[in-house]
Recover the amino acids of this structure.
């Protein structure tokens, strides 16, 4: 999978537009969701992802990827989102930015299956994390960064990253407590299958 | 379990999940899990949560729609594109470059040619760079003029006055057989009739150089005349005659000049026979004429020297008895 992405990225670097399209279509949805988890505005999220891909194409000659392509994409989206948030802070008042936690994605959807519902709950749980916790968790989980890399990028000690990750998982577990029998049941079902 | 312990375990679980746990820590965690099913469940739950972690699927983002939106911008950003042409394109490109080069070369080398001939009249021509060339009678010039290279060559047989404008744009040369006269911002006259053994170059304004390809030659300044002896291939300088360009300018300046010379020059320039009667040939004259007609000039001379003018239709006769 990773090597496939690497090949696609090499094609992009040599100017293959089709390769860019492939990468774009594969990652657009998850990247938009990632951006949305920061920006809490689907339109802004889409704009950020689209612009990031345009920039990526423009700068393709100079891009070096050490980690995986997926991890790289999540990182550039996060950076773009954080920039966007900075801009918003200039425009808006700081206050209404930071907290809308808990009420996000609260609209229940009818078609959610048992499993879909669970994933939805987990997504909400992530959104409900305190800001730094959430940032570190998503960097680890979606950008697949090592603790050391997260610490370097956020200018934190590795100890803080360790603690915050532990805290993040614990908070989520606590929040999902009432669904945990469900999880056990689900695991049971999966195991039975 | 104390809060501190709990905190420690939480971070161990997290390390375990993301794969950054050390072997000793892992053993510690396993031991802790073994203590109670609750502990083990805590680990399992968090593993499950991490694995299922997602950013919500409440909202769908349409990749196709988005791609259509950004595609034009992708096309317009060719920076850093690696250019790889198939061989035939290289060949076609090469031919195109050759063709364009050839056309440019041709354009640069396009030399305009002009030919002028004067028979019995003095003719003045203006060239494209506003240089004027006056041809005295019986003169033939052929001009090669290259606007791009900014060069001009006047091949001369006869006599010509060349006036190059002050904002000199073109390097002009006059060629008489082997002799070359290079102007350096100037008005100069070249007298080079084929039957004459010499070529005379008189500088009215500025500076010229007359030389052969094989011989350095001489520099001439305003008021100087350079003479080239065709038979000996020698150069020498003389003082320029004041009225060297009179055939073109009709300006005459005489200082203590004998009447015979004056009349001879006037009859040449105005192409009229003028005869002298009486003992007046040696009479001296100091006078200037600036583009006057012949009648005016002759009446001034007669007034000055107390002569009588007779015009019989074929020739003009100046008669008197002696000089005053």
């Amino acid at each position: 999978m990773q090597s496939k992405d690497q090949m696609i990225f090499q094609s992009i670097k040599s100017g293959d537009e089709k390769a860019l399209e492939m990468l774009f279509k594969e990652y657009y949805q998850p990247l938009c969701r990632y951006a949305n988890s920061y920006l809490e505005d689907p339109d802004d999220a889409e704009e950020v992802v689209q612009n990031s891909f345009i920039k990526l194409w423009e700068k393709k000659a100079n891009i070096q990827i050490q980690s995986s392509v997926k991890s790289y994409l999540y990182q550039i989206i996060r950076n773009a989102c954080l920039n966007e948030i900075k801009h918003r802070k200039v425009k808006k008042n700081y206050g209404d930015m930071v907290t809308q936690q808990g009420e996000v994605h609260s609209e229940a959807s009818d078609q959610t299956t048992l499993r879909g519902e669970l994933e939805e709950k987990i997504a909400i749980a992530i959104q409900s994390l305190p800001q730094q916790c959430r940032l570190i968790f998503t960097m680890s989980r979606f950008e697949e960064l090592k603790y050391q890399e997260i610490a370097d990028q956020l200018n934190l000690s590795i100890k803080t990253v360790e603690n915050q990750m532990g805290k993040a998982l614990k908070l989520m577990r606590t929040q999902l407590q009432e669904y945990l029998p469900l999880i056990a049941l689900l695991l049971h079902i999966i195991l039975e299958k | 379990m104390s809060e501190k312990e709990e905190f420690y375990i939480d971070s161990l679980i997290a390390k375990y999940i993301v794969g950054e746990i050390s072997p000793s820590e892992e053993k510690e965690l396993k031991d802790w899990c073994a203590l109670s099913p609750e502990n083990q469940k805590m680990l399992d739950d968090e593993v499950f949560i991490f694995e299922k972690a997602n950013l919500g699927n409440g909202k769908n983002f349409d990749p196709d729609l988005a791609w259509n939106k950004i595609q034009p911008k992708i096309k317009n950003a060719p920076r850093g594109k690696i250019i790889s042409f198939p061989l035939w394109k290289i060949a076609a490109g090469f031919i195109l470059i050759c063709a364009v080069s050839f056309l440019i070369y041709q354009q640069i080398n396009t030399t305009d040619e002009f030919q002028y001939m004067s028979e019995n009249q003095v003719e003045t021509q203006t060239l494209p760079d506003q240089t004027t060339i006056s041809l005295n009678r019986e003169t033939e010039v052929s001009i090669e003029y290259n606007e791009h290279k900014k060069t001009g060559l006047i091949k001369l047989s006869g006599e010509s006055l060349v006036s190059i404008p002050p904002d000199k744009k073109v390097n002009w040369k006059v060629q008489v057989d082997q002799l070359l006269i290079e102007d350096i911002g100037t008005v100069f006259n070249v007298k080079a009739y084929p039957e004459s053994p010499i070529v005379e170059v008189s500088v009215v304004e500025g500076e010229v150089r007359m030389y052969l390809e094989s011989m350095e030659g001489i520099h001439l300044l305003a008021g100087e005349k350079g003479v080239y002896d065709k038979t000996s291939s020698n150069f020498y300088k003389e003082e320029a005659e004041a009225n060297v360009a009179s055939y073109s300018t009709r300006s005459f300046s005489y200082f203590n000049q004998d009447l015979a010379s004056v009349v001879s020059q006037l009859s040449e320039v105005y192409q009229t026979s003028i005869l002298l009667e009486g003992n007046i040939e040696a009479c001296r004259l100091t006078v200037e004429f600036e583009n006057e007609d012949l009648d005016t000039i002759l009446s001034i001379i007669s007034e000055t020297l107390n002569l009588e003018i007779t015009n019989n239709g074929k020739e003009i006769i100046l008669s008197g008895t002696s000089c005053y």
Summary: The two ends of chain A are 26 Å apart (CA to CA). DSSP finds ten helices and no strands in chain A.
